[in-house]
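Can anyone check this?
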Amino acid sequence: MKINKMSFEELNNVNLHDKIIQDFHFDRLTKRLVIPILPENEYDHNDEVHEMEFLNVLGLEITACDFWCPSPHVLSVSALSKDEENLIPKYLENWCAPNDPFHTAKNFPGENCFEVLVEFTSGDTLSIVCEELILK
């Protein structure tokens, strides 16, 4: 399944609750983030999603504080509406800062992006801004 800015709400119909995310790989040159999705346990054979591949990643932020308890289990994965976005407005503000010595006149690269929030049962979160998400 391919998801982009026009179809981002489809992600809210995908259930990854209690799946496991232990690691991920980010390639800065290609701006590609790959997250393997592991089953909850050895008896969990009803896996529709085995991997999330984020393309043209503009940015990501993660907490790993184990607020509630140490756990790699996913609580939820959701695509954020414009009103819920946290990273895109922050990146836009930094991009447009006229007093920044690295300010550029180029268009903001996040115009075709959407924001994904992965919440863990630990209370931690992983936020990703990308142009496309492929669920495999």
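Reply from J.R.: I decoded it. Residues 64 and 124 are 6 Å apart (CA to CA).
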